[in-house]
Amino acid sequence: MLQSLLLLAGEVELPFLAAVLREHNPALEVVPIGNAAALPPPGSPLLRRARIVAFAFPEIVPGPVLRAAGFGAYNLHPGPPGYPGWAPASWAAYEGAGRFGVTLHVMADRVDAGPIVAVEEFEVPPGIHARALEESAYAAAARLFWRMAPDLAAHAEPLPPGPWQWGQPRRTRRDYAAMCDLPADISEAELTRRLRGFGYGGDGAPVPAVTLFGQRFRWQEPSGGGA
Question: Which residue of 30, 91, 170, 182 could cross-link 84, Cys pair, CB 3.0 to 4.6 Å?
Fold first, then answer.
């Protein structure tokens, strides 16, 4: 029987998500986890009787902890299967993706590599910038969590994988930083695309910058936001 669930999320989301889970399993012990340091060790009895669920959780859960979870570990990735890795909304905005979404998947040792169990997608307005796309993805993540909450909270068996496959490449922080290093001869069209995707420096990310005549010039987002 599924007795406990470790809920990994931000301080704002934790109480609301926990309440949704308890609606579907009033006896469920929901343990809020705000950072990876608060996770129980792999040998913990709590882990053996628990399921891990992560919602927009920025830290990596160690492999031994994942493998010790008695009822599996699931992550809600803030991008669709075609955009694994870091800052998916930035890459989608830069590439002008026509559709975007969020992905619920089994957590594995490798980031965004486990079997996919559910996806929530939506159409993307032309010219949208990364900040607005992240906001739309956050709303989609909430919808997907609500839809999957009965299975996550009350069904002890593993969630069955669906037909989706992860795309490539799997972007990293280093890839993101490389896109912020602007060449001095960048075209106007390419500059517009890069500012749309990487121009607001969310979550402490680097911002676009260019070196001219020995001086480093960094982009500062206008007060109204966007690019």
Answer: 170
